Amino acid sequence: MDDPVAIAKLVMEKDDKYSDAKIQSVRHLMIRARLTQEGVYQLESEIRLYESSKEFNKILVTSENEALMRANAIKILYRMISETEIPSWKEREARKNYQKIIDEYSQYLRHLHKH
Asked: Which of 30, 58, 68, 69 is deepest in the core (most CB within 10 A)?
């Protein structure tokens, strides 16, 4: 895949799925945990952050502004790389999977930066 717009859309789609998973996880935590009012507020803020990210992605795709979609995808990829958990050196399969993910994201970044 060499088309930067297609890559940007794919990255934003992955980000939307990640946001959905995080929202579900936070809601599950809110149901299970006894939280103070401040804790509830913090978790609701986290949910709003992920919902806003999804909405922003949708707006960019609808706008068809290629430069903004690419810039947003680059930002998302750097965030995804920094948030990807680095496995213990003892976990060989997990390290292989981690390297595969980083290689994939790095490839997307190379394509997005060169266009």
From this structure: 69
Distances, alpha carbon 92 to alpha carbons 38, 43, 88, 99, in Å: 40, 34, 8, 11
64 residue type, one letter: E
Q: How high is the pLDDT of residue 43?
A: 93
What HEC string does the chain produce? CCCHHHHHHHHHHHHHHHHHHHHHHHHHHHHHCCCCHHHHHHHHHHHHHHHHHHHHHHHHHHHCCHHHHHHHHHHHHHHHHHHCCCCCCCCHHHHHHHHHHHHHHHHHHHHHHHC
Q: How far is CA 110 from the centre of its chain?
A: 18
